[in-house]
């Protein structure tokens, strides 16, 4: 403490009261050293010290909204997710997604677009703003809990000893890429399905291979996320080979790029011809099961399955 007192220490067993309390409460620097104030003719005295907080005092409990904004068009975002964005003091997300929802952002809102790579820093920033007392919306495309920011934010909160209540967290679901793509081609996900991300940045490749193999064997309709980037080009080839070992060459496959965005493209092809269709990181690939059929521009997986089940 800047001005410890022997007298005070003897009286209350701590050398500083006013200064220590001010510094602790403000979590900042002492600006006015302690002053003892007495009123003439009155008994007793009061000691005052002033510390200045690093951040403006909000007096509010922070909130974190983890928001899925759907595949790309504002018409595909839920009303609840829209409301969460409008009500937030601050909105944080990948810059492309921020561009999509910017028309919703009221004047005066803090809007922070981030580059695609810095997901963990984005989560840390959102938590810091919420701990300050702001209501913060963290936006992800599609559903925020499917390869999105919800997991990162919750993981990060857990790692920093979060009590589960402060800041308060609310998750707003969104239409994921697999649902958006499915809607564009009919009803390919009518029966049991699974999603597999082909990105081996966060998952070891051997784990992805095991899942592809298991999904192929179990005859799940498979949605492949993150199928191909400029540098990751072999993963989709391997995925096709594994699926091909368990399914016929003419199994219908939908390749949907930028669903519900102006530059959307939709292809229906077959497992054998999958690699002839352009595929990139804005694409999701839906591979049918044994009973999936193509009908013109439509892809249909029957609800009834027993008759078309693969032979042992
Ligand atoms: N949280 C998102 C997924 C993020 S992972 C969701 O629930 O949809 C990023 C991958 O999602 C992309 O590589 C692509 O495979 C897929 N994706 C996201 N938006 C898409 C869209 N509009 N059209 C097609 N695929 C999309």
Description:
With 312 residues, the protein is of the alpha/beta class. The protein has three domains: 6-52, no CATH class; 63-175, Tetrapyrrole methylase, N-terminal domain (Cobalt-precorrin-4 Transmethylase, domain 1); 178-300, Methyltransferase, Cobalt-precorrin-4 Transmethylase, Domain 2 (2-Layer Sandwich), CATH 3.30.950. Helices cover 29% and strands 25% of the residues. It is built from nine helices and 15 strands. The chain has helices spanning 6-12, 18-26, 79-87, 95-101, 119-132, 149-159, 177-185, 205-217, 234-246, and strands at 29-37, 46-52, 63-68, 90-94, 110-114, 135-140, 168-172, 186-187, 193-197, 221-225, 252-257, 265-270, 283-287, 293-295, 298-300. Strands 5-4-6-3-7 form a five-stranded parallel beta sheet, with helices on both faces. Strands 9-10-13-11-12 form a five-stranded mixed beta sheet, with helices on both faces. A three-stranded mixed beta sheet has the order 8-15-14. Helix 5 (119-132) packs across helix 6 (149-159) and helix 8 packs parallel to helix 9. It is elongated and about 100 Å long.
């Amino acid at each position: 403490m800047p001005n410890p007192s022997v007298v005070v220490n003897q009286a209350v067993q701590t050398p500083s009261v006013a200064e220590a309390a001010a510094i602790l409460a403000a979590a900042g620097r002492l600006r006015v050293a302690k002053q003892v104030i007495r009123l003439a003719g009155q008994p007793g005295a009061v000691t005052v010290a002033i510390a200045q907080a690093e951040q403006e005092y909000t007096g509010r409990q922070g909130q974190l909204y983890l928001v899925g904004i759907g595949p790309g068009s504002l018409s595909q975002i839920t009303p609840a997710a829209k409301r969460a964005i409008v009500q937030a003091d601050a909105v944080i997300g990948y810059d492309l997604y921020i561009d999509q929802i910017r028309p919703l952002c009221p004047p005066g809102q803090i809007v922070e677009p981030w580059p695609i790579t810095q997901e963990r820093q984005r989560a840390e920033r959102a938590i810091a703003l919420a701990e300050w007392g702001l209501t913060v919306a963290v936006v992800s495309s599609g559903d925020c809990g499917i390869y999105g920011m919800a997991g990162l934010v919750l993981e990060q909160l857990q790692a920093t000893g979060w009590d589960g209540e402060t800041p308060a967290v609310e998750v707003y679901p969104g239409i994921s890429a697999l649902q958006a793509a499915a809607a564009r081609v009919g009803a390919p996900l009518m029966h049991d399905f699974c999603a597999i991300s082909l990105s081996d940045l966060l998952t070891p490749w051997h784990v992805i291979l095991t899942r592809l193999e298991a999904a192929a064997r179990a005859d799940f309709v498979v949605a492949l996320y993150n199928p191909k980037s400029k540098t990751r080009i072999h993963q989709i080839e391997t995925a096709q080979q594994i699926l091909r070992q368990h399914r016929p060459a003419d199994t219908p496959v939908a390749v949907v790029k930028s669903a519900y965005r102006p530059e959307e493209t939709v292809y229906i092809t077959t497992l054998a011809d999958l690699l002839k269709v352009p595929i990139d990181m804005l694409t999701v690939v839906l591979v049918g099961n044994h009973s999936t059929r193509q009908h013109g521009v439509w892809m249909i997986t029957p609800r009834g399955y027993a008759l078309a089940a693969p032979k042992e």
